[in-house]
Amino acid sequence: MDKIVSLAKRRGFVFQSSEIYGGLNGCWDYGPLGVELLRNIKEEWWKAMTYRDDIEGLDAAILMHPKVWEASGHVENFTDPMVDCKQCKTRFRIDTLSEMINEKKKKKILEDFKTGILNIPEFVEKYNETFIVAEERKEDPFDLLLENKELSQKLLQEINCPQCGNKNTFTSARQFNLMFKTFIGPVEDTGAVVYLRPETAQGIFVNFLNVQSSSRQKLPFGIAQVGKAFRNEINTKNFLFRTREFEQMEMQFFVKPVDDKKWYDYWKDERLQWFKDLGMTKSKLRYHDHPKEKLAHYAKEATDIEYEFPFGWGEIEGIHNRTDFDLSRHEEYSGKSLKYFDEESKEKFIPYIIETSAGASRSFMAFMVDAYYEEEVKGEMRSALKFHPRLAPIKAAILPLVNKDGMPEISQKIEIDLRKRFKVFYDDKGAVGRRYRRQDEAGTPFCITVDTQTLDDQTVTVRERDSMEQVRIQIENISSYLNDKLKF
RNA sequence: GCGGGCGUAACUCAGUUGGUAGAGUGUCAGCUUCCCAAGCUGGAUGUCGCGGGUUCAAGCCCCGUCGCCCGCUCCA
Q1: How far apart (Å, rounded) are the C-alpha atoms in residues A114 and A108?
Q2: Which nt sits closest to A74, CA to C1'?
Q3: A183 in a structural domain
Q4: Are A367 and A391 in contact (CB under 8 A)?
Q5: CA gap A424, A411 in Å, rounded
Q6: Does residue A254 sit in the same domain as residue A353?
Q7: CB-contacted nucleotides of strand B (7 Å)
Q8: Do residues A230 and A142 share a domain?
């Protein structure tokens, strides 16, 4: 993994964000080669997903109405206060912690707690207030006390850790806000709070009827979107794997509820095949089906496509049956009907949604790791990135074998001609062997070399990255040769 | 968030009991070079992550902080 990170920096794939200021945790920048690779991945995905008659594209704004995130469940689920047990290192959500303690025990704890704060009048006052509020709202006073910033710390001291049984081992309760908050308008008024979207999906859901009616689509059909999403992760990890700003490639497929299984299976196959078609090692790809009891609140069925990274298997795409959860919720929260009218059956219903949600950044890293290759050639190490030609940042390098006898002139002509159609690179520095190896590390699949024979018969050699073998072709055929190699 | 490790040139790393920083690779310029990191000559690059402290003197010792990696936790 370290090798990949170091190569990524050395060759201009990925730099740490704000590096000269000491870096910013969990943020990374894509350099000249990185941005090409990333764009190619997104481009391949876009073509695979939207160049078909049953999927439309969309680019929704990153900022959305705050109610979207209430409807989606993110406000509720992304902002739980948590505590850690310092002894056994277990983390608890405050509300789950409360659930783990039985009523009798709670009573005892509250009594001990009250004794403990008798000599602090303001605490006693707050304590009594809490009970009145709990009565009014018909809530557990225990929970309310735990949620109170000043009192919770004292109360936590009275609670034994349900995991290890130790007392007085909890950290103070911390609020985890997994959504980034910001403000609409220059005045930081709470009424104007908006969030940076934690997923692109909601932009698709709220536009479901807009897209459907403007594109005259009928069920089943999908909406695809590529875009940045943001999560205030507790810890970032493993290079690009868990970052706070990342890019998603999502497609939401709207189906009749009775067809959900069929389309779930279809997209499950389809999405795995996409990674394989782009050259990812088959044995390093697998499904990880979510067991029923671990499914997220919105999902009926879910699987991850996982790639075997050097640090272990990790999710690069999720395929979920989200049922009618999202559209129902948006209907409820917005008060607008999101039902679809089926002409054939004359029925009105909320469609089910099959989601395919791939991480662009994670795929980037998976393709990078998968392409990395080392071998020994005549006692020297050769390292190469064996990208599928369609993903390779640079498609071809043009190299004059030596810098004389008119070779540079011919090479430059070839370069100018190819540059219109392909991302190419011209290099005349140093020995040709060194230039080949440089291109290997950048992942360039083809090197076109102009030599003495070129001067006689207008042919060049094309050296292939993986085999290092060369073929000789006519200059006028280079374009079609490359085009052919860039086909599936 | 907790525990551990690390931070010196673009990369990999060395740096003695504290005495004003080195190597290899890469890179750049030139020469040479007819096919796989060849050779020769010359050049450039460091607030030793950042901030503070101890000291006559800190890359080295102490404190804080930021970042990266590993493990745990978390990942609706």
Answers
A1: 10
A2: B76
A3: no
A4: yes
A5: 12
A6: yes
A7: 1-2, 7, 10-12, 26-29, 31-39, 49-50, 66-76
A8: no
Answer yes or no: are the C-beta atoms of A222 and A50 closer than 8 Å. no
Contact A373, A383 (CB under 8 A): yes
A55 in Cβ contact with A222 (< 8 Å): yes
Between CA A464 and CA A51 the distance in angstroms is 30
Instruction: Indicate the range of A37-41, A163-167, A275-279, A405-409 predicted with least confidence.
Output: A163-167
Nucleotide nearest to A467 (CA to C1'): B36
- For residue A84, being part of any structural domain is answered with yes
DSSP A237: B
Helical ranges in A101-184 per DSSP H: 103-117, 121-137, 141-147, 149-156
Domain that residue A170 falls in: 80-175
Residues A166 and A224 in one domain: no
Which nucleotide has the shortest C1'-to-CA distance from A380?
Answer: B37
Cis peptide before A220 (omega within 30 of 0): yes
Domain count, chain A: 3
The structure's pTM equals 0.84
Of A143, A175, A207, which residue is a domain's last?
A175
Higher pLDDT: A75 or A262? It is A262
pLDDT, one tens digit per residue, over A286-324 is 999 888 777 777 778 899 999 999 888 899 999 999 999
Q: How far apart (Å, rounded) are the C-alpha atoms in residues A200 and A226?
A: 8
Residue A28 to residue A92: CA distance in whole angstroms? 30
- The secondary element (H helix, E strand) that includes residue A446 is strand A446-450
Tell which residue, A118, A108, A148, A112, has the closest CA to residue A131: A148
Give the end of a domain, one of A308, A335, A369. A369
Name which of A175, A236, A228 is nearest A197 in CA terms: A228
Per-residue CA distances from A262 to A253, A292, A323 (Å):
12, 18, 13
